[in-house]
Write a structure and sequence with these properties.
The chain has one helix and four strands, in the order E-E-E-E-H. By secondary structure, the chain is α+β, with helices and mostly antiparallel strands. It has a domain of 40 residues. It has a four-stranded antiparallel sheet. Strand 2 and strand 3 form a beta hairpin. The protein is flat and about 35 Å long. InterPro entries: DUF397. Pfam families: DUF397.
Length: 63
């Protein structure tokens, strides 16, 4: 039996329910991403390098 992923909400998600992105490690080289408002819709699985690229792009976009 495998344990459930440990989902963490993004620090920029707000308490009123907007912009809720969660991430969880899914193994040694994979990360799951999901919308916390629609967890029943599943998640997107990306590689660790893809996730790092995503985070770098988000951090670079300081709008």
């Amino acid at each position: 039996m495998t344990s459930a992923p440990a989902w963490r909400k993004a620090s920029h998600s707000n308490a009123s329910g907007g912009n809720c992105v969660e991430a969880a490690p899914l193994g040694p080289a994979k990360v799951g991403l999901r919308d916390s408002k629609h967890v029943q819709s599943g998640h997107l699985t990306v590689t660790a390098p893809q996730f790092r690229s995503f985070l770098n792009a988000v951090k670079a976009d300081k709008r």
